[in-house]
Amino acid sequence: MLWTFLTGLVTVASLLLARGKKEAVVILASSAAALLLMDSPAGVLALGIVIASPRIRSYSVFAHANMLSAVLVSSSLLWYYEHGLLPGSKQLAILFALGIGGLAVYGILEPRMYRFLAASSLAQIGFVALDLSVAFASADPGLLKTIQVFDYTIAGSLLFLGIGMVARRKERLSDLMGSWFVSRWADLFTVIACLSLAGLPGFNIFVSEWILFTKGFAMDPLITLLGIFLAMMLFIMYYKVAYYLLAGPGRRKKEDRARLAFAGALAAAVILLGVFPWLQETILGLMT
Taking CA atoms, which of 19, 68, 167, 204 is between 20 and 30 Å from 281? Predict the structure, then answer.
């Protein structure tokens, strides 16, 4: 049920950005194919889609490739850990943490929007792998094995949807300047997504990071120290997007109410799940 819900969420967000029937058909067909691969070892191959995604020119398909791949790869990684093909260990956790750090440095320095967003997706998938390594190294994996992908699906979909409302056909992150004066609600929701992805308290992804830090500390304090350092780097990475969104001149344009309503619902979920962490435990308990 969890993977169906997450797939449905990213599909709706992508369809709201689709232009024309061809894009909608591609999105629906890829979602159906992904559902068939859920909870299987082959799903990890979707990492290749994220890596190749900057070459996709259609923003809705690009966003869908990134978010759907994150869900599919997370499901596949969980299968590998549950079947003992990947070990839950401190060494593997540190290896994934170093990979996330490299992606964060790349994202901080990358000026091109598509490459930045693809790096963001890979970094969040890395956090899923880091969570799984720590979860299965402990006696009780609990929420840690699913909470990161649950939170990222909500916040990540909000990020892609928000940027898609103000930045279609734009190539560089600096081109986002002035969008606050174009669509303030879209920018506000996108900034909320950035704050969540950066792991700030009060937003949903902080809850998953807090669980990671506490379980990681019990295994080895180095895991928690690395996690905090990674959170600081990701803050710098996503702050760049927030800065461009809020700076510069622009002209107002007509806003799409359906997209804004869905983005507003995602933004509300990001905040509610961060302020009331027990909601995540309840929802994931029902879905898994």
Answer: 68
The CA distance from 222 to 220, in Å, is 5
- DSSP-H helix ranges across the chain: 2-17, 21-37, 47-52, 59-82, 90-109, 113-137, 147-166, 184-197, 204-219, 221-246, 257-275, 278-287
> First vs last Cα of the chain: how many Å apart?
7
d(CA 91, CA 223): 10
On the question of pLDDT at 76 being above 80, the answer is: yes
- Look at residue 246 and tell me whether its pLDDT is greater than 90: no
- In angstroms, the CA 217 to CA 227 distance is 10
> Looking at residue 247, what is its pLDDT?
76
CA angle 96–102–103, rounded 5-degree value: 90
Distance of alpha carbon 212 from alpha carbon 220, whole angstroms: 12
Alpha carbon distance 124, 177 (integer Å): 25
SS3 276: coil
- Between CA 252 and CA 255 the distance in angstroms is 9
